[in-house]
Amino acid sequence: MSSERDERPVRPTVEDGTAAAASELIGGPMGRRALPGGWWTPVRVIALVAIGMFALGMVQKLPCYDHGWFFGATTQYTHACYSDIPHLYTGRGFDAGLLPYFDRIPQSLSGGMDYLEYPVLTGLFMEVAALLTPGGGTVQYREQMYWIVNAGMLLACTAVIAVCVARTHRRRPWDALLVALAPAFALTATINWDLFAVALTAAAMLMWSRGRGVAAGILIGLAAAAKLYPLLLLGPLFVLCLRAGRLRSFAGAAAGAAGAWLVVNLPVMITHDAGGFHVREGWAKFYTFSQERPVDFGSVWLFISQRTGNPLDDANTYVSLLMVLGCLGLGALALCAPRRPRFAQLAFLVVALFILVNKVYSPQYVLWLVPLAALARPKWRDFLVWQACEVLYFLGIWFYLAYTGSGDKHQGLPPEGYQLAIAVHLLGTLFFCALVVRDILLPERDVVRRDGSDDPSGGVLDGAPDIVVAGAARRARQAANPQDRADGTRVQWGTGSRNP
């Protein structure tokens, strides 16, 4: 591991057959005597590719930019170029100068929403974009400019994601090319504001990989103030730090996350009147809306509801139960696996679990998983199979909305076709999850560990000894050293060999 050869970046065209075959489009795999370097470093190349793909995604939205968002209910669906951004510019009062969480939205604008239904940092992102949007002209012009401004800000988020993923695994920067070239990433990047939270989460993963636990926690807290899902990463960190006996590092990260979230939310959350301090209704809207919304597009619950005719009013109970059971299962996997799972593997699995059991699956939610998938299992064939499933779902939901919005014409995808699209999305995600679980149970199949690495994105966990284990891991450890106590506190395992 200390040789000069071992420090060179891993080239996917050498270890991955699909990447090698695809490289023939640009002249074939890099030769042994090639001398990469200079200005064209892997990180810069990946960032530029990500920016180029983002630009192609913007071009794909061109039919809607010209007319689809404004004229005709189904054009934005038949061209698969829908975006929430221009619609919410006027629908949430940004055009009228309303302040999120403080000003109530008139019913004539919102169509039923009294306050902005997004977390605080996303609301700030939207407000900053509104302030940067040129005034004057028609409402259509201002909505177009608002989308352009947001697209520019989201482009910056894309560059951050690409750079952070490329630098998280020091010897595997090219794995971030999976993110840069992901078709579902480009297609969904400007549907909503999810990329902001994804960028903060990617930065948190990078900080953790560098051993900066408090900084990682602060970024997780900020990401959770923009979208709720990044909080799930604290679960894998806890069980992995428990197994490695590094709970102090987890405590620093958890404290940083809680502190950052409170600093951002408290000024908007708390209001005071003659009756004392209260939680502001506008701040709470995101949480009450998430709790009260019925089963919605893309979820397994909508599939069941449409097939059975049952509205599943108690879906919240099912979601909560499955999340608890799933998290317990992942915790058991982390403690019982023959080798401690990598942080990226468990992070991908817990976010995928949330997506699979949630009441809604918007097309842009795939953005949450793409960077984690590239770090968890950088295999091009399997990644592209999963991406193909997501692209099919992306097309399926828009054609289904075209069908439901075209009146008696029914032009688009009927409910049975949309249910098939949901099934494809669910099965594609489960397929990738199954491969990640297999890599955990059979660590010799893990492509990241083939060079002897332990957990390149694990920070203090990388090469740390195992302290708390259970099941098969404990039996394997006791077999390696029968003199160790049954609780295993004497044996210290890191990368597979005993440490003194």
- Contiguous runs where pLDDT drops below 50 for at least 5 residues: 1-5, 483-500
Radius of gyration (CA) equals 24 Å
The mean pLDDT is 89
What class, by secondary structure content?
Answer: mainly alpha
Number of structural domains: 1
Cα separation of the termini: 19 Å
Give the tally of β-strands.
2
The biggest sheet amounts to:
2 strands, antiparallel
Helix content: 55-70%
Give the DSSP E fraction (strand runs of 2 or more residues): under 5%
Main location: membrane
Pfam families: GT87 (PF09594)
GO molecular function, one term: hexosyltransferase activity
Family: Belongs to the glycosyltransferase 87 family.
Summarize the structure.
The chain has about 500 residues and is mostly helical. The protein has one domain. The chain has 23 helices and two strands.
Describe this structure in words.
This protein has helices at 12-15, 17-22, 42-60, 62-68, 75-78, 84-91, 107-110, 120-132, 139-168, 177-181, 183-188, 194-209, 213-224, 234-244, 247-269, 281-292, 300-308, 315-336, 343-357, 366-376, 380-405, 415-441, 471-480; strands at residues 270-273, 276-279. By secondary structure, the chain is mainly α. It has one domain (40-461). Strands 1-2 form a two-stranded antiparallel ribbon. A hairpin with a 2-residue loop joins strand 1 and strand 2. Helix 6 packs across helix 9. The longest helix is centred in the first third of the chain and has 30 residues, at 139-168. The protein starts with 11 loop residues before the first helix and ends in a 20-residue tail after the last helix. Mean pLDDT is 89; it is low at 1-5 and 483-500. Belongs to the glycosyltransferase 87 family. One of its GO terms (molecular function) is hexosyltransferase activity. InterPro entries: GT87, UCP010361.
